[in-house]
Amino acid sequence: MDDNPVLDPLAAVRAPGDPATDVYLTGTVFLDIIFTGLDSAPVRGTESWARGMGSSPGGIANMATALARLGLHTSLAAAFGDDMYGDYCWDSLVDGEGIDLQLSRRIPGWHSPVTVSMAYEGERTMVSHGHEAPPPEEATPECPPRSRACVASLVPAGPRQEWIGHAARKGSRVFADVGWDDSGRWDPADLADLEHCEAFLPNATEAMHYTRTSSPREAARKLAELVPLAVVTLGSEGAYAVDSARGETAEVPALSVEALDPTGAGDVFVAGFVTGTLGDWPLAERLAFACLTAALSVQEFGGSLSAPGWIEIARWWQHAKAYDDQDRAALRRYAFLDDLLPAGTRRWPLRRAVPTIGFRRQP
After folding, report:
1. Number of H helices, E strands in the chain
2. pLDDT of 263-319, one tens digit each?
3. Taking Cα atoms as reference points, which of 29, 33, 9 lies closest to residue 99?
4. How far, in Å, CA of 75 to CA of 60, rounded?
5. Which three-class secondary structure state does DSSP give residue 362?
6. Of 245, 226, 247, 177, which Cα lies nearest the Cα of 205?
7. Higher model confidence: residue 212 or residue 343?
């Protein structure tokens, strides 16, 4: 038996002539600096010492990393500064995570966007700084390369993203999430690009604001009138999905875990759901798997740093079956992992980006 088996979650559905890229993403990459071990929020006029610190690529890199760690061939188009932070993020994504950055670009004289995140009491406070990247000197293609799927982030009050429609017409399955609307308008017109999407995955607050409803389940049903598959995350309650194309609904409760830092959990949820969808899993299994990957991520600090790979998933499943800290319904809900996880998972290499900046290679 191979000592280092590699799990391909799409092995059963791959066929000759399929696109080389499983998932295409585009967006802004930040350098995330995460302070951990704070007992409380910083107080104005004082100095706080954190017991821990980590660094990792953030922003759209959170979702790209989560997809790559689940075994999907991931392509990311983003701008990178030519400063030390840009070097670190680029190398971490390519060498540490195996993400394809051929469609990304380095910009001379442009500094990398930075986010400082302070995690305490199960929450986090973030401060970000950055400037919009200058437009590319050469015309960008109107459509991303052929891929099984694309993940699009809809921008409140922003212009429509023409590439989404082009990608859908070329056969890509488009999954969408949405950013927070600081204006408070929550204009349904901002969701116009959903006409090209297969699935929409907002959180409960976003879903209720856009649909003017009073419950996330009602919001999911309203959104399913705009897109074939509406998935609403319910935080500590789990997630609810309405598949209007098949006349099917599913709801999965969240797993009981100790949450240390929720940064990136939404991105990890989307990555888990996309993985199951591309693998043609039943709706309830896709939803359960997405809840599991998100639950594993909040037990660690950071965004991309905390995204679980198959080794963490396998270890959780082994523990869940061996110890009585999950209810019997959870064990039945995740029984599909027995068929998905091959033997030998304990010996898989743990692929991770280096969680800090500044170490130099020894000569």
Report:
1. 10, 14
2. 788 999 999 999 999 999 999 999 999 999 999 998 887 788 889 999 899 989 988
3. 29
4. 11
5. coil
6. 177
7. 212
pTM of the model: 0.91
Cα angle 338, 343, 344; round to 5: 135
- Ramachandran angles phi, psi of 220, nearest 5°: -60, -40
E strand or H helix at 23? strand 21-26
- List C-alpha distances in Å: 134 to 85, 91, 104, 304: 18, 22, 13, 25
Strands 123-129 and 239-243: unpaired
Q: What is the DSSP letter of 36?
A: E
DSSP E strands, 197-355 = 199-200, 229-233, 239-243, 248-252
Count of CB atoms situated within 10 Å of the CB of 331: 13
Structure tokens at 163: 């590439």
> Residue 71 corresponds to which amino acid?
G
Amino acid letter, 110 = W
**Pairing assessment for the beta strands 239-243 and 248-252 based on DSSP bridges:** antiparallel
